[in-house]
């Protein structure tokens, strides 16, 4: 069986450990590797890289990964024979590491966002496109079962003309006062690359573009609703990054998208993420795994009358979309596609150009917030 070496930098973080190492690479190893179009299989062989030797050793011991190194400069890693460099570090460290990997001739796959600012993201994308390496950006939400069902409805013309999209995302992240926060403290420090706009709007960029159309303009208001939080050492600190953002985006095809993203909201919906699509022939609401629809012919005809109780149960008017297939972990599915892209040269459209588009929307949203105006999002030139 063929092996493919994968340098996994930043894998000691929450996302790197859980989604990329355990649920993707180690899961693929347990399955006997990635099947290629020829029927042959290729086995991913991870090399764990990070800045914390203790955490790396613990991961190695717990999961039986023999190869690891605490080499923050990457020299010893990039000089080896591993074909793929993967980066899930905090965003400010990513561009320099990715550029080193490209220079070393490694195929590169990395978490989003590609960079903290658009100029840097464009430069990284340009260097990648001018090189001979293959490059890809994580866009995991495209493989969420709920959004895949939504895509199926779009492909089958269920909605007719799509009018609007509404995205509700978020949950209450504890401040650390009284009980520990469930997200790392750097998420709430702008100087460390934190903020919900930087964290989530790269996701909204590819979700909107892949399902509905390119974002053409954005209006956005960010807020730091909770000014002080407690870090992992029990020390109180000033939260300098936005913990909530409220945006309206205009998409090609005259579609309007409304997006609420918040770490300061208590959930009263079916899931932490909910996407509602309304069209002339029908509507749908998708969560992480489920999707339900209401066709035009089955739409009730409510009459506004606040003086009498509403006896109609509107939730009963929706029909569940069946699975019709088995759904794998979203991160794992994209890892399979990237490995097949590297080894078998299969198409992989989610490249660094797509990653730069996510940074472009993030930056435009910050500009709209800062300048209190609607900002046009031009077609990105690399």
What secondary-structure arrangement, pairings included, does this model have?
Layout: E1 2-9, H1 14-30, E2 34-35, E3 41-49, H2 53-63, E4 68-69, H3 75-78, E5 84-87, H4 94-103, E6 107-110, H5 118-130, E7 135-137, H6 145-155, E8 162-170, H7 196-211, E9 215-223, E10 228-230, E11 236-238, E12 244-251, E13 255-262, E14 273-279, E15 282-286, E16 291-295, E17 319-320, H8 330-344, H9 352-371, E18 375-376
Helix pairs in contact: 1-8, 4-5, 5-9, 7-9
Shape field = globular
- Number of helical regions: 9
CATH topology of the largest domain: Dihydrodipicolinate Reductase, domain 2
Q: Any idea what the CATH architecture of the largest domain is? A: 2-Layer Sandwich
Strand content: 15-25%
Key words describing this protein structure:
single chain; alpha/beta; Rossmann fold; seven-stranded mixed beta sheet
Summarize, please.
The chain has nine helices and 18 strands. With 382 residues, the protein is an alpha/beta fold. It has two domains: 159 residues, Rossmann fold; 199 residues, Dihydrodipicolinate Reductase, domain 2, CATH 3.30.360.10.
Description:
It is a single chain. This protein is 31% helix and 24% strand. The mean pLDDT is 95. It is an alpha/beta fold. It folds into 2 domains: 2-141 and 330-348, 3-Layer(aba) Sandwich (Rossmann fold); 142-328 and 360-371, Dihydrodipicolinate Reductase, domain 2, CATH 3.30.360. The protein has helices at 14-30, 53-63, 75-78, 94-103, 118-130, 145-155, 196-211, 330-344, 352-371; strands spanning 2-9, 34-35, 41-49, 68-69, 84-87, 107-110, 135-137, 162-170, 215-223, 228-230, 236-238, 244-251, 255-262, 273-279, 282-286, 291-295, 319-320, 375-376. The strands form 3 sheets. The chain has a 9-stranded mixed sheet with strand order 17-16-15-14-8-13-12-9-18. Strands 1, 2, 3, 4, 5, 6 and 7 form a 7-stranded mixed sheet that branches. It has a two-stranded antiparallel ribbon with strand order 10-11. The relative contact order is 0.16. The chain contains 9 helices and 18 strands.
């Amino acid at each position: 069986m063929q092996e493919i070496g994968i340098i996994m930098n930043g894998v000691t973080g929450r996302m790197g450990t859980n989604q990329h190492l355990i649920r993707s690479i180690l899961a693929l190893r347990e399955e006997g590797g990635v099947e290629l179009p020829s029927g042959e299989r290729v086995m991913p062989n991870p090399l764990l890289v990070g800045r914390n030797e203790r955490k790396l050793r613990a991961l190695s011991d717990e999961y039986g990964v023999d190869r690891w190194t605490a080499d923050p400069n990457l020299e010893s890693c990039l000089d080896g024979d591993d074909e793929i460099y993967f980066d899930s570090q905090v965003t400010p460290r990513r561009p320099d590491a990715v550029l080193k990997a490209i220079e070393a001739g490694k195929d590169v796959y990395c978490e989003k966002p590609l960079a903290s600012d658009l100029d840097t993201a464009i430069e990284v994308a340009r260097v990648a496109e001018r090189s001979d390496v293959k490059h890809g950006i994580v866009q995991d939400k495209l493989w969420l079962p709920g959004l895949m069902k939504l895509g199926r409805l779009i492909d089958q013309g269920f909605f007719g003309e799509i009018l609007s999209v509404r995205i509700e995302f978020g949950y209450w992240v504890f401040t650390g006062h009284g009980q520990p926060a469930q997200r790392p403290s750097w998420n709430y420090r702008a100087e460390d690359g934190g903020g919900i706009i930087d964290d989530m709007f790269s996701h909204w960029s590819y979700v909107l573009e892949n399902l509905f159309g390119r974002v053409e303009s954005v209006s956005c208001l960010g807020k730091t609703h909770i000014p002080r939080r407690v870090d992992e050492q029990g020390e109180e600190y000033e939260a300098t990054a936005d913990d909530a953002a409220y945006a309206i985006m205009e998409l090609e095809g005259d579609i309007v998208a409304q997006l609420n993203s918040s770490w300061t909201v208590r959930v009263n919906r079916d899931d932490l993420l909910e996407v509602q699509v309304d069209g002339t022939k029908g509507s749908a609401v998708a969560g992480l795994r489920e999707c339900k629809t209401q066709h035009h012919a089955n739409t009730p005809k409510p009459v506004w009358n606040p003086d009498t109780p509403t006896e109609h149960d509107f939730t009963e008017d929706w029909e569940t979309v069946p699975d019709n297939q088995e759904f794998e972990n979203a991160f794992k599915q994209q890892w399979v596609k990237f490995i097949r892209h590297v080894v078998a040269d299969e198409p992989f459209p989610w490249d660094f150009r797509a990653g730069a588009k996510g940074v472009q929307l993030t930056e435009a949203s910050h500009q709209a917030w800062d300048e209190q105006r609607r900002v046009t999002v031009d077609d990105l030139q690399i």
